[in-house]
Amino acid sequence: xxxxxxxxxxxxxxxxxxxxxxxxxDHVDGLRAGVARNMSDPGPYxxxxxxxxxxxxFFDDYCNWQRIPEFETAILGSDVSTxxxxxxQSEQVQVxxxxxxxxxxxxxxxxxxxxxxxxxxVEGTQTISFWSPLDPxxxxxxxxxxxxxxxxxxxxxxxxxxxxxxxxxxxVPVPDPEAEAMRxxxxxxxxxxxxAFHFRTLHGARGNHSDTRRRAFSLRLVGDDARFVExxxxxxxxxxxxxMMAGQKLRDDWFPRL
Length: 258
What we know:
Number of strands: 12
Mean pLDDT: 97
Shape: globular
Low-confidence stretches: none
Helix content: 10-25%
Strand content: 15-25%
Strand order of the largest sheet: 1-9-6-11-3-2
């Protein structure tokens, strides 16, 4: 069993981010095979994030775990549900979606600073994402702003390439955490380690300037108090035809309980 200490729970609750070593360590090879399968057969939301002036390849895709068996095996065969319950302090855990992010060697594009929550149609204090590299990471690791999950307002969701707002609403502009001397938490990680962070935690990542790939598997889960919420525009992922109403728990035939 993956060890989660009371100090880990306190760090997650207060900082909105904590490192869990070896969470997917037994599934690294399978997840690498799943990423290869995903890249050779992309889903409808896949992108190569082509941006003028940037070099390399930054591939990302999401909502594929039910069609890529290696992803499903890692989700159901790891301790991720127990770890999520413990960190969120939730009785139940539901799968929201998976996300694959691959930066090939020499990829200059950074993952822009953003919170996940404003893009999603779910709100609640009991939410969690796991970001797990499938290659050793140093500079291209995930970077999180400690305590940003407790900010009174969300950061405006933007499109990664155009940098245009996803939709208008009562949001604050995307900050520059380095210029504003915010506390940025980042870790050197080995394959299978996982950063656990809240949907409202501001995060990003540098480009991959190394000579090795940076593959990452990310998983988003929700807990007891998560509810469907209407946003000012289309959400990402959209999950068309879901049929849910504001205030409802996510339907567990689409978002199964672990």
